[in-house]
């Protein structure tokens, strides 16, 4: 999901992609209707110029066991990649995901 969210060739996406590639996963939390995966980005990496909290939320998925699908938000806090949130629209998140298809819903050259 993150690779798709950061696939645009812009300075912003290139910076966030570099942060992601250097990051480590520090926590995973299942919520019942999705998940949070928290990242730690080394302080040596440059920050996004506008450090207020932002997000990219333009990736969606068809997932076996979720008739209404799922969405994903990539959170950026204090100019650094912070968390990937996955959520379903109406059902409980499946215990196991065997098959899925993901897509971007729009041009994500700007943070929301």
Structure summary:
The chain has about 110 residues and is mainly β. It contains two helices and six strands, in the order ααββββββ.
Question: What is this structure's SSE topology?
Answer:
Layout: H1 2-5, H2 11-22, E1 24-30, E2 34-40, E3 54-63, E4 66-77, E5 80-88, E6 100-104
Antiparallel strand pairs: 1-2, 2-5, 3-4, 3-6, 4-5
Distance between the termini: 17 Å
The strand order across the widest sheet is 1-2-5-4-3-6
| Regions with little confidence, pLDDT below 50 for 5+ residues | none
How many domain modules? Answer: 1
State which percent range the strand residues make up: 35-45%
User: What does the average pLDDT come to?
Assistant: 89
The major beta sheet can be summarized as: 6 strands, antiparallel
Please tell me what the overall shape is.
Answer: globular
- Please provide the ordered H/E string of secondary-structure elements: HHEEEEEE
Describe the structure.
There is one protein chain. The chain is mainly beta. It has one domain (2-104). Strand 1 (24-30) and strand 2 form a beta hairpin. It starts with a helix and ends in an 8-residue tail after the last strand. A 6-stranded antiparallel beta sheet has the order 1-2-5-4-3-6. It contains 2 helices and 6 strands.
Keywords:
45% strand; mainly beta; single chain; six-stranded antiparallel β-sheet; 112 residues; 2 helices
């Amino acid at each position: 999901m993150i690779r798709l969210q950061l696939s645009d060739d812009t300075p912003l996406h290139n910076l966030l992609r570099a942060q992601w590639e250097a990051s480590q996963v520090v926590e995973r939390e299942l919520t019942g209707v999705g998940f949070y995966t928290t990242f730690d980005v080394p302080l040596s990496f440059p920050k996004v110029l506008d450090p207020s909290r932002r997000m990219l939320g333009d990736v969606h998925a068809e997932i076996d066991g979720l008739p209404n699908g799922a969405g994903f938000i990539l959170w950026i806090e204090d100019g650094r990649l912070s968390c990937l949130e996955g959520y379903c629209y109406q059902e409980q998140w499946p215990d196991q995901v065997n098959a899925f298809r993901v897509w971007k819903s729009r041009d994500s050259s700007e943070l929301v």
